[in-house]
């Protein structure tokens, strides 16, 4: 059996994969693994061959001017490793030759807020952070700008709770309890190659309850009222989809359409650009700046582990970081300068 035969057989057997995950695995197999390893006999595949493949991918793509990022190399490796783990499990090979392969370190891009300096650079020459995030002032300005937009409640909800794009598109009225001020994330709408499908949240931790503050509750109540008015005055029967955020005729909102709508209103606002996912990052950043703990933010965002939350949001808003720096300096000079006895007493009591 060749590596190609096994890879395709393995992928076809993964019936529980999400559509986007299966598409990603298929791309790795078609674009990288089969061209480099496809004709190798599975039983003869070893670590040196796998290591040579990753070296060749990096060199070949670099020569064409389209270097493969370290993150992509790690994803390709994860696909191959998973397929070969299954080959070990069913007894086709004694050990996984993808284990122990050396890859360049991949760092996750961290959200960076639009400070005045970054905004000036963007306006001057278009320079922008990899993952830009608005400050609270910029977010408030955006929400004021879109106050009359028919999807205002969606933008308000994501800005305060950090729901993912697919989660907010998949939110149904049966998932929302406005009296209790809570919603349940039970599904997401995923879009792959133009097709939309309903799927469970991204991970087990994604199935969660999210607390709603009074401003979000008010925005959702007004949205529901507007939705009822839209359907009452419509000249033709509306689709009763049950989703919270829909088109005027009741059809469910697709994730890609939401991305385009959001990009359009951001451009019209004149604010520095962020994506709908950047709005999610902003919700997490503001929650941390307001004093929420990492565990609370992890639960709000539906991250699989607190380490993911800590890695992404190791830096918070500049104002908060500046305040922490000032407090640290004040503590140092209080303890080692004039008034140190009083400060030490306060420190012990505190």
UniProtKB/TrEMBL annotation:
Residue ranges constituting the Tyr recombinase domain according to the UniProt record: 129-326
UniProtKB keywords: DNA recombination, DNA-binding
Gene3D superfamilies assigned: 1.10.150.130, Intergrase catalytic core
PROSITE patterns cross-referenced by the UniProt entry: CB (PS51900), TYR_RECOMBINASE (PS51898)
Entry-linked InterPro entries: CB, DNA_brk_join_enz, Integrase-like_cat_sf, Integrase_catalytic, Integrase_recombinase_N, Tyrosine_recombinase_XerCD
Domain of life: Bacteria
Domain named Core-binding (CB): residues: 1-88
Stored Pfam families: Phage_integrase
UniProt xrefs under SUPFAM superfamilies: DNA breaking-rejoining enzymes
PANTHER family listed in its UniProt record: INTA PROTEIN, PHAGE INTEGRASE-RELATED
Protein name per its UniProtKB record: Site-specific integrase
Native source species: Catenulispora pinistramenti
